[in-house]
Amino acid sequence: DWTMAEFRKTKIEEIRRQVGSGRVICGLSGGVDSAVAAVLIHEAIGDQLTCVFVDHGLMRLNEAEQVVTLFRDHYNIPLVHLDAEEKFLAGLAGVTDPEAKRKFIGKAFIDLFEEEAKKIGGADFLAQGTLYPDVIESVSFTGGPSVTIKSHHNVGGLPERMNMQLVEPLRELFKDEVRVLGRELGLPEIFVGRHPFPGPGLAIRIPGEVTKERCDILRKADAVYLDEIRKAGLYDAIWQAFAVLLPVRTVGVMGDHRTYDSVCALRAVTSTDGMTADIYPFDPSFLSSVSTRIVNEVQGINRVVYDFTSKPPGTIEWE
Ligand code: XMP
């Protein structure tokens, strides 16, 4: 794609101009956006860049390994891998309000980046994979009063005391354009084609309190769901598909005994930019086989429901 080749060149020059001989820290989330931003910035400034992957313990199954492999083995870009599961779970204990979860997670990320920056003798810039829709949705609906729908944790600037500037080379792009740029930069298809995943991770897919146990249950259900979607050849036709673990228990029966376990909701939507979305119209037989597998294979879930809400009025995530 010649337009993206052009964009790549222009951005590389822009990054070099902005950064000069400064040091940049880039936070990787495991998603496409931050990976593309990091690879682009690395191409521009090489080892002035330090990538930090914060594993908050709120990733999907096996996701953390995939990120580490991509950067270390595929690109040979040095990467600091922080295992921060305990810090995040401790901070989330007792927190049930969606915005409070986001605020805590956003702040914990910044604290960790700051610590890493100190370790390398200070960094002048923090790089992020912020996209255009992130900017809009965190700011306001045009024309109306300023209403924050969700404070995407990677938007909204940095604390004053940080003394770092932001480098956000993807700020004008939509997701589909980021994917084109990712291919242009040689990212493997399994990475580029991956469904979006929010920075706060599974924390906003577990309404109510987030615990390690609930994260583990959700990871298993989510993996079964995505496995079935891939096997049915539907993965690329869907913008985002995921499971949500509800803070509701219902009664069921398994074999000859009564169960009293959590409900899991399945979400799948089509979209071009995440700003509006339609539900994916699965075959009922597909949903029923996913439901059977989840209830049989995931201990702690005994009922599965499908979310039929488009965006608007729903949002894609449940929190
Ligand atoms: P919503 O739920 O607002 O989601 O319809 C739109 C898109 O944004 C993702 N999302 C987030 N991404 N930090 C992120 O980096 C966040 O706090 C966040 N909240 C939602 C969501 O997965 C969807 O792709």
UniProtKB/TrEMBL annotation:
Any one GO cellular component localisation term in the record: cytosol
Segments crossing the lipid bilayer: none
Q: Where, in this chain's numbering, is ATP bound?
A: 29-35
Outline the extent of the GMPS ATP-PPase domain.
2-194
Reported EC number(s) for this entry are 6.3.5.2
Query: What top-tier enzyme class does this entry carry?
Result: ligase
Catalytic function, reaction form: XMP + L-glutamine + ATP + H2O = GMP + L-glutamate + AMP + diphosphate + 2 H(+)
* Superkingdom of source: Bacteria
Keywords for this protein: ATP-binding, Glutamine amidotransferase, GMP biosynthesis, Ligase, Nucleotide-binding, Purine biosynthesis
MF terms (GO), sorted A to Z = ATP binding; GMP synthase activity
Q: In which pathway does it act?
A: Purine metabolism; GMP biosynthesis; GMP from XMP (L-Gln route): step 1/1
rRNA-binding found in the keyword field: no
Q: Describe its assembly.
A: Homodimer.
Protein purpose: Catalyzes the synthesis of GMP from XMP.
Q: What is this protein called?
A: GMP synthase [glutamine-hydrolyzing]
* Recorded name of the encoding gene: guaA
Range within the parent protein: 206 to 524 of 524
